[in-house]
Amino acid sequence: MGNGERGSSFTKVTEDKMGNGERGMTKEQRQEALEIIRKGAERLKAMPRGDVEEGFTPCAKDLEREERYRRRLAEERRVYDAIRAGRKVYDE
Which has the closest alpha carbon to 13: 40, 34, 43, 42? Predict the structure, then answer.
């Protein structure tokens, strides 16, 4: 996803989007929720998440972790495909 368009925009939060009591929230609960969202927006502005920024490159350790995950996922898919096909496969 690393294109910077992940999740919701904090800049468009209004009380209208909080449900106006439709979900059983009181006015105080809505205000508290809005304050939490605003604080989150301030934190992100002060310290943006690098993994969602354009041009982000993970460190070597993260790249290695991702490669291990990718290999394990491929092995898992191979095993499940064999199970569905009624075949047996063994560790390589």
Answer: 34
Phi-psi region of 60 (alpha: psi -120 to 50; beta: other; left: phi over 0): alpha
Cα gap 19→34, rounded to integer Å? 12
Q: With contact defined as beta carbons under 8 Å apart, do 35 and 18 qualify? A: no
- Using an 8 Å Cβ cutoff, are 18 and 30 in contact? yes
R_g over Cα of the chain:
22
User: Tens digit of pLDDT for each residue in 10-59?
Assistant: 555 555 555 555 567 888 999 999 999 999 999 988 887 777 777 788 88
Handedness of CA 74, 77, 81, 86 (dihedral sign): positive
pLDDT above 80 (res 72): yes
Name the residue ranges covered by the structural domains of the chain. 1-56, 58-92
Confidence (pTM): 0.44
